[in-house]
Amino acid sequence: MTKTATVYTSEADSESAGRELGRKVAEALGPQQPDALIVFASSRFDYPRLLAAVSDACGPRVLAGSSSAGEFTARERGEGTACALALISDEIAISAGVGVGVSLDRAQVARDVVSSFRGLESRDFPYRSALVMTDALAGHADDLVEQLTVLTSGMYQFAGGGAGDDARFSRTHVFCGTEAFTDACVGLELLSRKPLGIGVDHGWVPASGSLRVTEARGAQVVSLNAMPAVEAFQAHASATGQRFDQSAPLPFFLHNILGIDTGTGYRLRVPLTIGEDGSVHCAAEIPVGARVCIMKTTGESPIVAAQRATQSAIRSLHGHKPAAALLFDCVATRLRMGDAFGYEVDSVARLLDGASLVGCNTYGQIARADGQFGGFHNCTAVVMVLPA
After folding, report:
1. Is 27 helix (H, G, I), strand (E, B) or coil?
2. Residues with Cβ within 8 Å of residue 97, at least 6 apart in sequence
3. pLDDT at position 299, please?
4. Of residues 181, 135, 138, the one with CA closest to residue 161
5. Which CATH architecture group holds 205-296?
6. Range 202-217 average pLDDT
7. Do β-strands 271-274 and 280-282 pair in parallel, antiparallel, or remain unpaired?
8. What SS3 state is found at 251?
9. Is the pLDDT of residue 322 over 90?
10. Which of 169, 347, 367, 382 is the most buried if burial means most Cβ atoms within 10 Å?
């Protein structure tokens, strides 16, 4: 049996916020220590103080999580806040590992993360999953997911995302125990006797013809079809009657993102800024030679996508009821939708039929599971559902 509790605080002081989260967990779960506590918290907090206070208040055996760019449960939602999922289970074994130096050596970071995983040697649990949170500002998230997949021999499924900092795009953190790390990745191993479900969907469709990435440097797209990348966006804005202010391009970019054609779908990348040379810097890497399209969505598409992701995750439980779910969606989605983002959270909560829900807005989303569109994404809903 798995027992869960979701808690939320809008308390501004770090120590007070941590105490409130921990107190609410203790009230919900009783005297038994949580086997795990997953924390998402705004960049406004002093993380060591917050994490120490919540740990002192409810004594979790394992604590993991990240900074975020919008936090929510099924009942509450905001920015500049903190939330957490606590669980006690006799059917899920939990451990956590952290690796530092994502920008320098993903292979070593992946080795450090999985060094704490027990499912690589033990066969006591048939289902192996991990919640993975990384410093997406350090880059190379796709490579990191690939390294984790190789080191776990493809036996694990992953869900999670890139830590946020309230859309400042300056400095993000991941949590392991009462410590906060930058340029790092944390993995929370979840070994289970029942399947855990992961669902992925985004709801965007091509709005332009196919374009070839003729030059790129990591997340910086220098040229498309051998012309400065910005010219493709200029032409698209003109063709669709949209305003494109190159001195302040983000409002346009939030509605006109890039989709990498994988042959089976589109993996999304959010453009952020324009360089003096006409290059476009995106939220994650785009490989040279890739075929891309400028994508479009409708106002309700993110809600429908989150619903489909949730339904897919629930189906992956193979008849078991959900105990709790984690929802990750892009900060760009929240910024584009505004207050309507709450409808997305509400729609996911309704499908869970009373199960706990917690999540945050991230700088990219991570998913790797059978039958799902895997890798590192932008503007995509990723849902992980734990069985009851």
Report:
1. helix
2. 112, 113, 114, 115, 116, 117, 176, 186, 187, 189
3. 77
4. 135
5. Beta Barrel (2.40)
6. 96
7. antiparallel
8. helix
9. yes
10. 382
Using CA atoms, how far residue 282 sits from 230, 258, 268, 364, 367, in Å, is 12, 9, 10, 11, 19
Contact predicate 67/51, CB 8 Å: no
Give the pLDDT of residue 373.
Answer: 64
Say how many CA atoms lie within 13 Å of 126 toward its Cβ.
Answer: 3
User: pLDDT tens, 290-316?
Assistant: 999 999 998 789 999 999 999 999 999
Q: Is the pLDDT of residue 374 over 90?
A: no
The DSSP annotation for 357-375 comes to: EEEEEESSEEEE-TTS--E
Q: Given pLDDT bands bounded at 50, 70 and 90, which one contains residue 264?
A: confident
For the chain, give percent helix, strand, coil, nearest 5.
25, 35, 35
Average of per-residue pLDDT across 204-212? 96
> Does the pLDDT of residue 16 top 80, yes or no?
yes
CB atoms within 10 A of CB 59: 16
Per the structure block, which two tokens stand in for 174? Answer: 């991941």
Sequence ranges of the domains in the chain = 2-201+302-387, 205-296
Contact 147, 110 (CB under 8 A): yes
- Rg over alpha carbons for the chain, rounded to the nearest Å, is 20
Give the C-alpha separation, 157 to 130, whole Å: 6
